């Protein structure tokens, strides 16, 4: 269901006041500021209110039995996004640690640096997202509409994201893949790919901290459990991509996923997602070199960064 249609059916009191409902983000333009070398953050925060946002209302109705993961909560909380520390996108996109599936067990040690993926900006409602062009040929118009300086690193990152989406470079040829620009389009792609609307999303979460990243340190694995009870079925992974608002590259995968409880040397705790690939999955052939095994010979795993999501059947 379209979020705008959904919220139009709700009484004004549900939306947080007696006046006619307004989305959290204005339809009259999206003011962004260029915080670091290549990252966007919204300037305006949502108005103070304890009422659920339109995105939260959509989630509760579309996925009533599925808790909202932290990765999505961050995207619908512009105040938190605006206050996060500046982060270089080069760092957050390359800090990957690979390990063998057999080495993932309670008591094992792993050195990690939790960082956010590509999507640091706020998620848009479908009506707003669909009103903004999303095509390389429209990039000058997009930059003007979103107040992004032409020729900036931010603009180049957006150009790259558009090109990757248009060239369908997200995943292998036998995978369903799609770039999503709104919460509704992400939910619908995941539901269509998994063949059911009875789905849930999970993400890596650092407990008790709002920081955009954590120090690199050694973590002890306290618990490991499969995300789904039956292996071999499709899942949908959504990776954040650098853009002026939240854009995700989503694709199906047959990887095995684990929920991993971690305890850091400094007391930091995390509930992390580990995905293990048994084939020579595209784009990370170096992973096999790092762990010293032949490509595709044994499952190789990595921890999903903050902000990325995994969709599975309930």
Structural class, please? alpha+beta
Number of structurally distinct domains: 1
Strand content: 15-25%
* Structure annotation, total helices: 10
Task: Please provide a written account of the structure.
With 314 residues, the protein is α+β, with helices and mostly antiparallel strands. It has one domain. It has helices spanning 3-8, 54-62, 70-75, 78-83, 89-94, 126-130, 139-145, 153-166, 183-194, 285-291, and strands at residues 32-36, 39-42, 98-100, 109-112, 177-180, 199-202, 205-207, 217-226, 235-241, 247-253, 256-264, 269-277, 300-303, 309-313. The strands form 3 sheets. Strands 3, 4, 7, 8, 11, 12 and 13 form a 7-stranded antiparallel β-sheet that branches. A hairpin with a 5-residue loop joins strand 9 and strand 10. The radius of gyration is 19 Å and the shape is globular. Residues 3-50 and 80-95 have low confidence and may be disordered. Residues 1-16 form the signal peptide. Residues 98-314 form the BURP domain. Keywords: Signal. This is BURP domain-containing protein 8.
Short description:
InterPro entries: BURP, BURP_dom. This protein has 314 residues and is of the alpha+beta class.
């Amino acid at each position: 269901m379209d979020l705008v249609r959904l919220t139009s059916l709700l009484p004004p009191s549900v939306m947080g006041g007696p006046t006619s409902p307004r989305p959290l983000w204005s339809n009259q333009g999206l003011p962004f500021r260029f915080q670091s070398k290549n990252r966007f953050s919204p300037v305006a925060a949502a108005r103070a209110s304890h009422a659920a946002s339109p995105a939260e209302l959509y989630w509760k109705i579309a996925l009533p039995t599925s808790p909202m993961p932290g990765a999505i909560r961050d995207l619908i909380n512009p105040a938190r996004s605006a206050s996060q520390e500046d982060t270089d996108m080069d760092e957050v996109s390359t800090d990957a640690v690979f390990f063998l599936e057999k080495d993932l067990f309670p008591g094992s040690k792993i050195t990690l640096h939790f960082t956010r993926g590509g999507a640091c900006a706020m998620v848009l409602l479908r009506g707003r997202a669909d009103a903004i062009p999303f095509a390389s040929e429209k990039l000058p118009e997009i930059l003007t509409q979103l107040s992004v300086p032409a020729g900036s690193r931010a603009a180049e990152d957006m150009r790259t994201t558009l090109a990757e989406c248009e060239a369908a470079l997200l995943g292998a040829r036998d995978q369903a893949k799609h770039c999503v620009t709104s919460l509704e389009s992400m939910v619908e792609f995941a539901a269509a790919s998994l063949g059911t609307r009875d789905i849930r999303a999970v993400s890596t979460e650092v407990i008790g901290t709002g920081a955009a990243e954590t120090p690199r340190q050694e973590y002890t694995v306290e618990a490991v459990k499969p995300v789904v009870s039956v292996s071999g079925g499709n899942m949908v992974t959504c990776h954040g991509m650098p853009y002026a608002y939240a854009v995700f590259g989503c694709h199906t995968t047959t990887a095995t996923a684990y929920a991993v409880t971690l305890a850091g040397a400094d007391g930091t705790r995390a509930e992390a997602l580990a995905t293990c690939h048994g084939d020579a999955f595209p784009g990370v052939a170096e992973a096999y070199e790092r762990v010293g095994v032949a490509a595709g010979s044994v499952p190789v795993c990595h921890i999903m960064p903050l902000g990325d999501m995994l969709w599975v059947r309930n």
